[in-house]
Amino acid sequence: MDILTYHIAVIPMSRVLHYALLTPLLLSVLFVIGSEIERYLARIPNLPGPRGLPLVGSLPWLWGKVHAEQYRQWAARYGDVFQVQLGQRTVVVVNSSSAARALFLGQRETTNSRPLFYVLHQKVQSGSVTSIGTSPWDESCKKRRKVAATALNKAAVASYFPIINLESRAFVADILEASQESESHTVDFRDAVRKFAINMVLTLNYGMRVESVKELHSNEIIKEIVHVETEISRLRDITRNYENYIPVLRPIYSLAARLRLYDGDYLPSIGRRRTGYHRTLLGKLRQAVATGTDRPCIQGNVLRDPDSRGLGEAEILSVSLSMMAGADTSQPTVAWAILLLARRPDVQARAYRAIADADPELLASPDVAHSRVEYIDAFTKEILRYFTALKIALPRATHDDLGATWQGATIPPKTALFLNSWACSRDETLYPDANIFAPERWLTADGAHSHQFAFGIGGRMCPASHLAHKALYAVFLHLFAHFEVLPAPAAGDDGDVFVDDALEGVAEKEQFVSTPRAVAARLVPRDRARTAEMLAKAAAVEAAAGTRTGTGTVIGTGLSSREKWWNNGRESTDGRGNEAE
C-alpha cells in the first residue's frame, strides 16, 4: 500500500461528509457574493432607489402588489425618477409627467429603444419575427413603425369609420341578445367585449371578422388566437416572469425540462403557433387580393404594393403581430367602463343628455364614429386615464450606444426604462383631484390638451392611439344611447365593494394588463324596439353593400384544426405555395 492510498484510507468518514456538505455551501456563498458584486456594479451612481436583497433585488417588495402603485409610493421617497434592481437587472422607473416629458421627449433619440427580455425574446420568439412594440430600435423597426403610423394616423382612421361603426353596432347587438337571456338583464360582458376587441384588429388588419360570440368557443382558429394571444400577453409580462431578472432560475428550468418535470418546448411552441395563424391569415388575404374579393384593410394595402413600403415578408408579419396586440388593452378598458357606469348613474344621465343636445338623431343612428360629442369624448379620455389598463407602459431602453441623463446621473446604454403610466395619470400637477373620476376635467381649456399617458409618450408611444380612442368613443356612445347600466345583483350590500376600484378591483394585482375581477352588470335596454330597428336597418345596408364594404370575410371559412400551421407555425399559406421567410 503506497502512502497516498494509506492516507485516503485512514480519513474518517465524518470528515468526508464534512467536506461534501461544506463545498456546495462555500460555492453558494461565493456565488451570492459574486452576484452582489455584479449587482453593486450595475447600480447607477447618483440615482436614488431601494437597495434590495441579494439575487432577488427588490422583487419581494413587489410580490402580491400592483407594481405601478408600489413604484408610485417609492417615488414619494426616492423622487420622480429612481432605479430599482429587479433580481440582477437595473431598471429606471419614471413616475411623473414632467419627468416623462424630459426623458422621452427631451431625450427621444437616446430613450427610443426597447430592452430584450429572456422569456419573450429568447424562449418564445427565439430570433423569429417580433412585434414592433417589442423590437429594439433599428432601421427595420423604423420602417415597420412608419408603415403602422401611416396606416393609423388621424386621416387614415377616418377611412376606418365604417369598420368602427360595424363593430360598435355588433357590440350593441351582442349585449342586447345577452340581456334578453335574464329577467334582470344581467350580462356577463366578457364575450361581447372580447369579440369587439378581436374584430377591430382582425377587420382592420386582414378584412376578416368573427360573426358571432359563439365562435369564440366553437371556431378553432378563433379559439387558437384567443388562447395564444392570452399566453403572449402573459409571457411578455414584465412583472412576473422572474427568469428575466434572476439568471440562476434559467438552468433550473432547463434541468426540469430535461427531467420532464416541465415542458421545455411550450414557450417556443407559443411563438410558432402565433406566427402560424398570422401566416395563414395573410395567405387567405393574399388569395382574396388576387381575386379582388378582399375588404379594404391595412395589410391589403401593403400586399398590393409591398415594394413601395420597403418591407420584407418577416416585416409584413411583424406589423400583423403588432396590430393583434392592440386587443390586449381595449378589452379591460371597456369592461372597467361598464363596471364604473353601473355605480355612476349621474355620469350616464349627463352623457345621454349630451348626446341628445348635440344631435338627437345620434340616439338611434347606426353610424356614430364621425360624430364628436364633447362629453363622450371626455368620458373616453377619463376612462383611459382613471383605470390605465397598461399601468406600466411597454418598457423602453436607452440606445445601444447612447445613454441618457437625469439630474446629475448618467443612465448607461441598454438600460431598461419603465414609464409608470399609472403614476403619470395620477399626477396632481397635471390632473387636479386625480383620484376622482371626472370627465369634466377634459372640457376645460387646460384639460383639453392634457397628454393621455394610457398610450405612452414620445417616439415609441402607441401608434394606434387615435384609432383606439375613436373605437372606444363609438362603443361608449352606443352604450349610453341604448342601455342603462346597473350593478349586477350579486354586487349589492354583500357584494364586492371594490368592483370598480382600479387597484383593489383587479383580477390579479401583479398582472401586467389590469383586468377587472368583476365580469357582469345589468344592461337594461332603454328602448328595445328602437335599438332593434337601428340594427335591422344597418344589417340591410351591409347586405346590400356586399363584402367589399359590408361585413367582410367571415374568418375560419375553409380552415381545419388539423392544418400544419396549428402544430408548429412553420408552414406558410402565402397564396402562392411558397414558404414564408
TrEMBL record:
A molecular-function term among this protein's GO annotations: monooxygenase activity
Database matches in Pfam families: p450
Gene3D superfamilies: Cytochrome P450 (1.10.630.10)
InterPro entries in the record: Cyt_P450 (IPR001128), Cyt_P450_CS (IPR017972), Cyt_P450_E_grp-I (IPR002401), Cyt_P450_sf (IPR036396), Cytochrome_P450_fung (IPR050364)
Residues engaged in binding heme: C462
SUPFAM superfamilies, A to Z: Cytochrome P450
Names of the cofactor(s): heme
Transmembrane segments: 16-34
Signal sequence annotation: none
Keywords: Heme, Iron, Membrane, Metal-binding, Monooxygenase, Oxidoreductase, Transmembrane, Transmembrane helix
Tagged with keyword Nuclease: no
Superkingdom of origin organism: Eukaryota
Similarity comment text for this entry: Belongs to the cytochrome P450 family.
This protein's name: Cytochrome P450
Organism: Diatrype stigma
Organism placement in taxonomy: Eukaryota, Fungi, Dikarya, Ascomycota, Pezizomycotina
